[in-house]
Fold:
Amino acid sequence: MCGIAALQLRNPSLHPRMGSLLSSMLCQIVDRGPDSAGLAVYNTPGLVSEGTSTLSLLGRDQGITTAAITAGVAALLPSDAQATVQVVGDTTLVSAAVGTDLLVKAVSETLPGSTIIGRGEHVAVMKSVGHPMEIAADHGLEAMAGSQGLSHTRMATESAVTAGGSHPFSVADDLCLVHNGSFSNHATVRRDLKREGVVFDSDNDTEVGARYVASRLKQGDTLEEALENLGKVLDGFYTLVVTTADSMAVVRDPIACKPAIIAETDDYVAMASEYRALAGLPGIDNARIFEPEPGKVYTWSL
Structure:
């Protein structure tokens, strides 16, 4: 059992409240996964900026100072890349005005032992072990602005309780995936993806789903098509939420074993594992509230 809370804000006037709204949603699903948690926030000032790639690294301690990281990365990038490093909670963010692939190469050479948990121009990913609300507070979620937010509270079943095994999994630019449930054939799909050259960071079954979706998108699938194909390949009981720079998708397995409920208004789309996480949202009394149908992919765009 895990908890999911996701929020896409269609009305820009709500963007300053993204963090406070997502924090209140997260608070209501803590008991679904008390061992660890993760967050993904989109277009949050101070964390990401347009025209700049940002990598989220697991952990606040990378073994060397932030000044040394900045100098090491800057030395491997063009002189006008303007590399910066900041520590937010238990996450290290490295940014530069270059493409993500070039920044990944520079960070990997500077910090060969680092684990990249998020990448892109629009998203910052943060995750850690511990009580979800303490993790949210440590990262300053409540004060964050943004266009979208995704959160997950984990009760580990398929792998150990580690920060690296926490969700979301962000394995391609601005792509994040969270999961409530388990994939029964993840080992088989992992082997297939490895044969295609895909590299994994953890033994978590959810990472297999994220890597599969990223692989399908790279092959030209739309987000909806990628999730439809996932349903043909990965077996198990699951509710998934996937976000990109400008979209959000929800899908449940064909039996719909795992809970999910959606609230939609002109101002936002919100999804949570339980209704109580939606109850405090503005205008909820007039929202269209429904449970996603089994096996059907739902998508929304900003």
Q: What stands out?
A: The first strand starts at residue 3 and ends at 9. The helical segments are 18-27, 66-75, 100-110, 132-139, 186-195, 205-218, 223-233.
